[in-house]
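Researcher: Please generate the 3D structure of the following complex. Treat every line as part of one assembly.
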Amino acid sequence: MRLRGIGKRYGGGPWVLSDVDLDLDPGDVMAVVGGNGAGKSTLLRLMVGLSRPSAGRLENRPTATGYVPDRFPPHERMSARAYLVHMGRIRGLRTPAATARADELVQRLSLVGGAGTSVRKLSRGNAQKIVLAQAFLVPSALLVLDEPWSGLDAATHPVLAELIAEAGQAGGRIVFTDHREAVARAYASRLCRITGTRLTEEPASPTAVVELSPVGEEQIALAGQPGVREVRDQPGAVAVFVADEHRDDLLRTALSGGWSVVGVRR
Amino acid sequence: MIALVRYVLASVVHSQRYLPPYLVFLAAMGILTSNDHGPLLPIYAVAAGVALMCATWLTIVVANADDPGQRAITIVNAGGSGRVLVASVIVTTAGCVVLTVMGLFFPLTSGTHHLTGPDVAIGTAAMLTAGCTGMAIGLLCARPVIRRTGTMVLTAIGAIFGCLLIPGAPPMNTMFHLLAGDQRPAHPTVPMVTFGAIAVLLLGASIAVTRYVVERRD
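Model: Done. Output below.
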């Protein structure tokens, strides 16, 4: 997917974005950072086709797209499962597959009350889980998440990171925003900043490769730990690609979670 | 598209907002047709007038079923706002068919009438004409086009009364005078087909304008 000279203004108002050039390849996990009202949500809405660019063009926009908007007042009266099954069917799943996937996601995101709860009775954090779940029902070639961590409890952060990592490994392009830059840097392989109306890419922090082998019966899941960008299986071990500043945290977590360190390289 | 239609329908049914237009329709029919033993066509003309208002209302209910946040999700999942618009039109059409059936047979329960085949045909055509015209107005007044509730309601009411009361306004005003007037033709097939065709054209134009506005607004 390519953005070429994209600009956006509403009516005759000032330009919100201008001259945005961006290439997204399968497997990219890109964070967009910027202050409040910088135009992050506008850029994301342009990417999913909810908004039309006032200038420039968007090339090769994938049709299989998942989207999590920045605000979602859940007025849906149906149950979480019914809602997710509807969304899954709209994206082309058959009812049994949609139901199975909805139940799986609800369980992984540990929705309080389970899949049978009515969506509008959910708290903000649990409603956010439903909005996230609908975006991950079907593998997407483009996954656009506006402030996906907002309202989520700490226990769900690694689950979302894991879902994002899985989507990236399945060949999806993931774009997300977060107002906390540390969060954005921890989970993204690329980072873009909006200043004024311009988008500039900044080098993401360097990646370290940590090789680990399992020890004992149970191992803690590595995908989804802060900073982990990819986990590759190797014979008798795994190679974990992690943001350099999270290397020590990962080693600590891994050593106490049933893994042995084989090697670390940068 | 079937999945999308099912979702829109489920969303409307769960919201229960479809009930007021139907209840108002039944109440109005009860008041206007009870103990009437005259010819059916003037009654169907009145029913079509009420159906115009209720079809507009129903269209707005269906088009507004998703709040803006959910609408964004539905559009992305469905692959475009055009598909969501088509699904809304399909659900509303089904709703208008229900209104038509209610309008055709309610007068028979509230008064004594002799029902003939041509009456049913003309009544059906009148109700469907009203339904299509109501949908055309409703689509242009609903939230995807007009965002403020007050403006939405006033525009819809203005359009409905304009359609019914402006002398010679096709299809509703002219159809009302044809069916309820004193010089009723015995077989008004040609004008009824014309009214139906005008209503369908209005609906088509309304869908096109709605799509144009929605595509270019954001």
